[in-house]
Amino acid sequence: MEFLEQRQDEIVNGLKDFFAAQVKENPAETKQQVERELESLYVRFGNDWTGRGIVGDTTQMATIAGLEAVRAECLAQLGH
Question: Is the pLDDT of residue 80 over 90?
């Protein structure tokens, strides 16, 4: 489980770092981009009929968590 927690932290922090400059420069556009990606991820998360397994689920949940954190930062920058 330690591997999964480490991987989750890497994904979440990596996404936050990746989008940091974009959030500061253009939070409205970044928010729209992230929301489109989140919509797709939530659909894929619900469509697990083939089974991703624990690693796939962890990766997907971490990606969603990271993008939700970026979205929250966009909202904060926009004063929402």
Answer: no
Q: What is the maximum alpha-carbon separation in the chain?
A: 41
Lookup: tokens for 12:
């979440």
What's the rounded Cα separation, in Å, for the pair 8 and 80? 27
Question: Of 16, 41, 12, 40, nearest to 30 (Cα)?
Answer: 16
Helices (H), 1-80: 2-25, 27-46, 53-78
- Number of domains present in the structure of the chain: 1
Mean pLDDT of the chain: 94
| The amino acid at 12 | V
Tokens 């949940």, residue? 61
55's CB contacts (< 8 A; 6+ apart) are 4, 7
